[in-house]
Design a protein that fits this description.
Keywords: Heme, Iron, Metal-binding, Signal
InterPro entries: Cyt_c-like_dom, Cyt_c-like_dom_sf
Strand content: under 5%
Radius of gyration: 13 Å
Number of domains: 1
Helix content: 55-70%
GO molecular function: electron transfer activity; heme binding; metal ion binding
Largest sheet: none
Protein name: Cytochrome c domain-containing protein
Number of helices: 6
Organism: Sulfuriferula plumbiphila
Length: 102
């Protein structure tokens, strides 16, 4: 697990190099991916349905680039094996449902 902080740091450092393409993702597909791959892990972390991870006061994601980086890091570290397009769908869903970044 030592590689997780390093991977997140690398992704966060390079995040400004690209914009989160929320308009290229499909939130409906993103919701299906989140429900399949994210909910159970998040529930084990914060309890309940896991959505508190997005709405808690100390959430780590503060902008669109951090959201994209966090989704990419979770994909890499959990073995979800999503393609980049899948990550864009998840970004679009999470942004629409929780974050509301422009």
């Amino acid at each position: 697990m030592k590689s997780l902080p390093a991977a997140v740091a690398l992704l966060l450092a390079t995040a400004p190099l690209y914009a989160a393409p929320f308009d290229k993702g499909d939130p409906k597909i993103g919701k299906m991916l989140v429900d399949k791959s994210c909910v159970s892990c998040h529930a084990s972390m914060v309890g309940g349905d896991g959505s508190k991870i997005y709405t808690r006061a100390d959430h780590k994601v503060k902008n669109a680039q951090q959201l994209a980086a966090r989704v990419a890091a979770c994909n890499a570290n959990t073995g979800a094996n999503w393609f980049p397009q899948d990550e864009m769908h998840v970004d679009a869903y999470l942004n629409q449902q929780y974050y509301k970044f422009k």
